[in-house]
Design a protein that fits this description.
This protein is of the alpha/beta class. 25% of the residues lie in helices and 28% in strands. It has helices at residues 13-24, 51-58, 72-77, 176-200, and strands at residues 3-9, 29-34, 61-63, 87-90, 95-99, 112-118, 125-132, 138-139, 146-148, 152-154, 161-169. Helix 1 (13-24) runs parallel beside helix 2 (51-58). It has a single domain (3-200), classed as Spore Coat Polysaccharide Biosynthesis Protein SpsA, Chain A, CATH 3.90.550. The two termini are 31 Å apart. The chain is globular.
Length: 202
């Protein structure tokens, strides 16, 4: 069994090194997917602030493409490079994994776990970031929903929370301009995915 660490990034040089250093202590293979989203304000499709150089230094695999990614679904599917028996540990570029992972707890779990994401001045939020590679697995329509022919949609609330490993969220360290741009993106994404949820009855 391999544990594959996954990060999507764009212009994240200020955060990525600390996240990758922490992730590499837990996983066998670290994968970074770089590039802008089509609807996210950007002047180039790939990071040009040093993000890719940091990824080359610390990650085992860097995935890019010459155009901007359509959305989070397309970009997150790019890191699902494993095979049956492997597991994925997903962190955002500004989330630092903290704690321990006893891999013996993974074997009996057929799907995966949520991890508590700790944000400043807010209670921990369980997020679905640790899961098994199942045949045909992919994100579909909504960036937090995984699908496979074996399980159909995997809803995050249906899996238990693993308490020994958490994600420290550093979004409070972002510049006001970056926060504004991410806000515009999240607004577009929320509307885009709301339509998908309605259309596909998710």
């Amino acid at each position: 069994m391999r544990l594959i660490g996954c990060i999507i990034a764009f212009q994240e040089a200020g955060f990525l090194e600390e996240t990758l250093r922490a992730l590499k202590t837990l996983v066998d293979l670290a994968v970074v997917v770089d590039g802008a989203f089509r609807a996210f304000p950007h002047h180039c499709p790939l990071s040009d602030d040093g993000t890719r150089e940091i990824a080359h230094k610390y990650a085992d695999v860097l995935i890019t493409q010459p155009r901007a990614w359509t959305d989070q679904v397309e970009k997150r599917n790019a890191y699902l490079i494993g095979s049956p028996g492997d597991w994925y540990l997903v962190a955002d570029a500004d989330e630092v994994p903290e704690g321990k992972l006893d891999r013996s707890v993974l074997a009996p779990q057929k799907i995966g776990f949520r991890l508590n994401c700790n944000r400043p001045n807010l209670p921990p939020t369980p997020v679905f970031r640790l899961f098994r590679h199942i045949r045909g697995i992919e994100y579909r329509h909504v960036h937090v929903l995984l699908w496979s022919p074996e399980t159909e949609y995997i809803h995050p609330d249906s899996v238990p929370t693993l308490e020994s490993l958490t994600l420290k969220h550093r979004t409070d360290e972002r510049s006001p301009d970056r926060v504004r741009k991410k806000g515009l993106w999240h607004q577009w994404q929320k509307q885009h995915e709301a339509k998908a949820r309605e259309e596909f009855k998710l």
